[in-house]
Write a structure and sequence with these properties.
32% of the residues are buried. Strand 1, helix 1 and strand 2 form a beta-alpha-beta unit. By secondary structure, this protein is an alpha/beta fold.
Length: 166
Amino acid sequence: MKKRKKWRLYADNNVEQEIVRYLKAEAGFNVLAVADDPNLRHREDEFHYRKARQLDRYLLTHDDDFWNDRRFPLYQSPGVIIIPKNDEGMAKYFPVLLRRIVDVDYNIDGGPRHLGSMKIRLSWDGMTYICSWPFGWPQPPSPGPLNCGSPKLKGPFPWATLWSWL
């Protein structure tokens, strides 16, 4: 069996340590936590948006401000994953489900998946995302949740629908 490449996450300062610990130890993610680095801790959101892209990491956050395309342009997105607040006990599982959808079910060519030029909001109701698929990348099969073309908003996809696609 082919070894899965670890997803590289850049956990914003507002992501609880319980979530970071779980994603590192239990779920096998490579996580750089802003809270662990005093040089990163008190920087502006724009800095973290650029830094995640520079380091080739998906930005994991609770901050809905990253959904704003005027402030955080989609074409510059490192891949933003917004998880719900106030329940780290459950929120830590959302990135795991997202990885399952992306790596296992919609990886038609077996190559690495990239969430660049995507913003994904995971909530208790389901998943909503906006994306612009980079030119030349293979498209996932329709009618999957990650089929992008020109910039567009997709979803929300209720969890029942997402589970039916797995």
